């Protein structure tokens, strides 16, 4: 991991998150906890930025000496126009969630997929090598996760989506070394038979529609790992039913949020933050 130009001893750091809306972002509370645990004097600002203010905001980020920012909806793609450099992750995923301001340049990264995979490895499956993984959904979140998963050498990645074309298109962006295939939701039943890990990347089941489920759990093989990117609720209906009715090991989305922030912190400050403290801060703010 590359390191930014600040260390613990260099005085207060200025960071922030841009998005629209931004009022409900948990990043400020999470980052404040990370700074506290690391003994850093830091300020992490919540910046409400509308699309037509993006260019001006990026100019301010440079001018006001921000060490970096996080980028959230709806700016993850548009912000790339205002950066000097893009990391491989951001190029391949086509979206940026973390910007590092170092040596007068703004460089974009994407830590969403890597954050998800680190969380999955820490909390559910320590080694993804040789595993068959199915993702539900073929949007931006799925794209980041496919990219990060492939670095872990799985045996096969299956993307299943309501709109089959989008699944095929996303799958088609990868070389054939590790098979990545796209299918329709209707084909999920048959394909699930060989799956080790099922990941929901769609918004189905998210608050307030918590009774929705992306597919019936009776087609999920018993005992596999089922993961959901959603963290509100902390346990979606998909996870609850997979755990109770299919004996699955389940993995919720909170860890992805925590680790995408932890990896951003590492890019900015050059060392690993205390993820347990970060997780607890988010949990406390949810209740
Ligand atoms: P994100 O960046 O969170 O991935 P997105 O790019 O809008 O958001 O993608 C949302 C994904 O969830 C898509 O794969 C979408 O399926 P379509 O491509 O068919 O639109 C999927 N999705 C959203 N709502 C859904 C629903 N009610 N049932 C099934 N899939 C759904």
From TrEMBL:
Top EC group: oxidoreductase
Domain of life: Bacteria
Protein name: Shikimate dehydrogenase (NADP(+))
Reaction catalysed by this enzyme: shikimate + NADP(+) = 3-dehydroshikimate + NADPH + H(+)
Keyword Oxidoreductase (UniProt): yes
Domain Quinate/shikimate 5-dehydrogenase/glutamyl-tRNA reductase, chain residue ranges per copy: 121-203
EC numbers for this chain: 1.1.1.25
Positions of the catalytic residues: 76
Gene source species: Paenibacillus zeirhizosphaerae
A matching Pfam family: SDH_C
Subunit and interaction comment: Homodimer.
InterPro entries, per database record: Aminoacid_DH-like_N_sf (IPR046346), NAD(P)-bd_dom_sf (IPR036291), SDH_C (IPR041121), Shikimate_DH (IPR011342), Shikimate_DH-bd_N (IPR013708), Shikimate_DH_fam (IPR022893), Shikm_DH/Glu-tRNA_Rdtase (IPR006151)
Residues the record lists as binding shikimate: 25-27, 72, 97, 112, 231, 260
């Amino acid at each position: 991991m590359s390191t930014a130009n600040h260390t613990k001893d260099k005085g207060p750091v200025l960071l922030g998150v841009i998005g629209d809306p931004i009022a409900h972002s948990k990043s400020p509370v999470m980052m404040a906890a990370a700074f506290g645990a690391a003994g850093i004097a830091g300020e992490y600002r919540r910046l409400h930025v509308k699309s037509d203010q993006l260019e001006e905001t990026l100019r301010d980020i440079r001018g006001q000496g921000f060490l970096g920012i996080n980028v959230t909806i709806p700016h993850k793609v548009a912000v790339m126009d205002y950066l000097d450099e893009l990391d491989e992750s951001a190029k391949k995923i086509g979206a940026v969630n973390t910007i590092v301001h170092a040596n007068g340049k703004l460089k974009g990264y994407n830590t969403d997929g890597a954050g998800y995979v680190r969380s999955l490895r820490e909390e559910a499956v320590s080694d993804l090598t040789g595993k068959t993984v199915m993702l539900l959904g073929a949007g931006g979140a799925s794209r980041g996760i496919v990219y990060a998963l492939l670095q872990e050498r799985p045996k096969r990645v299956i993307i299943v989506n309501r709109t089959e074309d989008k699944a095929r298109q996303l799958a088609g962006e990868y070389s054939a070394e590790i098979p990545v295939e796209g299918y329709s939701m209707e084909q999920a039943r048959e394909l699930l038979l060989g799956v080790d890990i099922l990941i929901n990347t769609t918004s189905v089941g998210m608050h307030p529609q918590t009774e929705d489920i992306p597919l019936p759990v009776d087609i999920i093989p018993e005992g596999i790992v089922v993961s959901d990117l959603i963290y509100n609720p902390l346990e979606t209906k998909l996870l609850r039913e997979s755990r109770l009715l299919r004996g699955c090991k389940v993995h919720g989305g909170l860890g992805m949020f925590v680790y995408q922030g932890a990896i951003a912190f590492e890019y900015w400050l050059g060392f690993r933050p205390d993820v347990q403290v970060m997780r607890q801060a988010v949990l406390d703010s949810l209740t």
